[in-house]
Amino acid sequence: MTPLDTLLKKPSVTIYLDGLMVLCYDKHHKRLQAGIHTDVHFHAMTIKVRERGQSTDLQSLTLELERIKEIAPFFLYVEKKEGSGAPSGAATLFKPDDPRYKQAFANVIDMQSESFHKHDHLRIKPNILAPLNILNGKFYAATLGMATRKSLERDPNPFNLGLVSTRVAGDISNTSGNLILRSNDHKTKPLIMLPLSDEKHYEVSIINEPSDNHEMGADHTHDDSCDCPPPDDESRVNHFNVYYKAFVLRDGATMYEVDIMEEPGPMPHDSEPTLSFLPDDPPCDIVWVSDISQLPDFP
Asked: C-alpha angle with apex 229: 157 to 280, nearest 5 degrees?
């Protein structure tokens, strides 16, 4: 698989986020929170570390959602001095308000945008999105696809959203030290500890996706009947139904789903570098909430 274009020219680490997650950005603390959706069947969070361009995992682990609930929140950061426990740097967003750039963070589906719930005063329910606090990196759209939005009530007139991000990436600038992923218990061994090097570029993939023991059909859904079609009088459940389990909407607010084409065709011509498109993108698309700075406290 050809590596995707990075935002920074020579980062030490590129973090990829994908699957059932809701992103929040805290401007005050300069951190990105990835809310891992835990109220969904047959999913798990998989974390893999590789040297860029290599196929062998240097480190990998899979956490079942029940385990995530037990040990969340998580913290991902660069520890400059081994054993210091003090993170350095800050997490920022690349052009969060300007979708004209292919790699702009603004291309991530925003559930509080004009196309979704701008006037619905969207809020997040507690105890559903387990926080992964990321304290380093510049975050951007890593892959794009052509998207259409429709209501969950079988909308006959889908709305064209244009190009949206199907995977979020964050580049950590060239640095040394240890990349640490730990749980809420400071006394336990880090889940990931990766010594960084000026000469190497590592990739960390974090995804909340269907677990290996769940057979997934081509039309992936998130209903209790696995991949079997629901009764005729019921709508089929997709990942946006699952997202709405975590949101509080006003009475009567429209709920939406989004269809994204895997191969969007020719890209608009501009001066930005062309992104790669993967034919096997995971079926769960990441979203964010621009007007919510942080997730509710998690037990």
From this structure: 75
pLDDT, tens only, 80-93: 765 555 556 799 99
Which residues contact residue 212 at a Cβ distance below 8 angstroms, ignoring those fewer than 6 apart?
Answer: none
For 205, the domain range is 13-211+229-288
Does residue 7 form part of some domain?
Answer: no
pLDDT in tens, 173-191: 988 889 999 999 888 999 9
44 and 63 Cβ atoms separated by less than 8 Å: yes
Coil, helix or strand for 27?
Answer: coil
Per the structure, how many domains does the chain have?
Answer: 1
Residue 249: inside a domain: yes
- Would you state the pLDDT for residue 233? 44
Q: Where are the beta strands (DSSP E) in the chain?
A: 13-19, 21-26, 31-37, 43-51, 59-64, 74-79, 91-93, 109-110, 123-124, 129-134, 137-151, 159-172, 177-182, 192-196, 202-210, 247-248, 256-260, 287-288
pLDDT, position 279: 33
Query: Given CA atoms 254, 246, 37, 224 in this order, what sign does their dihedral have?
Result: negative
pLDDT at 210 over 90: no
Tell me the Cα Rg of the chain: 19
Identify whether 4 is part of a domain: no
- Report if residue 44 sits inside a domain: yes
Nearest to 33 by CA among 17, 48, 19, 47: 17
